[in-house]
UniProtKB/TrEMBL annotation:
It catalyses: N(1)-(5-phospho-beta-D-ribosyl)glycinamide + (6R)-10-formyltetrahydrofolate = N(2)-formyl-N(1)-(5-phospho-beta-D-ribosyl)glycinamide + (6S)-5,6,7,8-tetrahydrofolate + H(+). Transmembrane segments: none annotated. Keywords: Purine biosynthesis, Transferase. It comes from Methanolacinia petrolearia (strain DSM 11571 / OCM 486 / SEBR 4847) (Methanoplanus petrolearius). The lineage of its organism: Archaea, Methanobacteriati, Methanobacteriota, Stenosarchaea group, Methanomicrobia. This is phosphoribosylglycinamide formyltransferase 1. GO terms for biological process: 'de novo' IMP biosynthetic process. It comes from the Archaea. Belongs to the GART family. It holds the Pfam family Formyl_trans_N. Residues 6-184 form the Formyl transferase N-terminal domain. Its EC number is 2.1.2.2. Pathway: Purine metabolism; IMP biosynthesis via de novo pathway; N(2)-formyl-N(1)-(5-phospho-D-ribosyl)glycinamide from N(1)-(5-phospho-D-ribosyl)glycinamide (10-formyl THF route): step 1/1.
Length: 209
């Protein structure tokens, strides 16, 4: 049985290297899906150029053009609905989604975080890891729920922390693992191989046609 190809919408605020990793994964055939839209809150984001180069439609929902967070969240939720996406990937999207938006798309949103959750949630995860003195950090791909950096974990990749690491040097090494972990996680979702049971994500065996 051949599955319908999944539609993927990516939310990104900045340069979009994780967005590019998804584009590359689709182009290589690793990810059996299509990217139907980039959504960004930043009209100057370099991720827009990446989308245009790949022929991907872009929705700019500029946070600064709204009177308050409630209006922005409403516009964002409408924009997400309009894409008709099966999966929403938060790939360096720098705004917290409100609870109503998260509940609108249960089990359909994943996020990449540059630390081994549940450690070092929120911003400046690399700085947190270095200051705490951990020997191993890394990245986590997880489903999104109403709490920040809290949802069920799909994949994690460890990265050693060196004695002379700076935030930038650690971030650079973790970013390479982010790209691979995110590609794998999106690929698994698109092949219907992820199940959430009692907060744990189970990876199913690949289906045969």
């Amino acid at each position: 049985m051949i599955m319908d190809m999944k539609n993927i919408a990516v939310l990104a605020s900045g340069r979009g290297t994780n967005f590019q990793a998804i584009i590359d994964g689709v182009d290589s055939g690793l990810i059996k899906g299509r990217i139907c839209c980039l959504i960004t809150d930043n009209p100057s984001a370099y991720s827009i150029e990446r989308a245009e180069k790949a022929g991907i439609p872009v929705k700019v929902i500029d946070f600064s053009s709204f009177g308050d967070r409630t209006d922005y969240n409403s516009a964002l939720c409408r924009g997400m609905e309009e894409t008709g996406a099966d999966l929403f990937v938060l790939a360096g999207y720098m705004r917290l989604l409100d609870d109503d938006t998260v509940r609108q798309f249960p089990g359909k949103m994943i996020n990449i975080h540059p630390a081994l959750l549940p450690s070092f949630k929120g911003l400046h995860a690399h700085k947190q890891a270095i200051e705490y003195g951990v020997k191993i950090s890394g990245c986590t791909v997880h489903f999104v729920d109403e709490e920040m950096d809290h949802g069920a974990i799909i994949a994690q990749s460890p990265v050693p922390v060196m004695d002379d690491d700076t935030e930038d040097s650690l971030a650079e090494r973790i970013l390479k693992e982010e790209h691979k972990a995110l590609q794998r996680s999106v690929a698994l979702f698109c092949e219907d191989l992820l199940r959430i049971e009692n907060r744990k994500v189970k990876i199913l065996s690949a289906k045969k046609d």
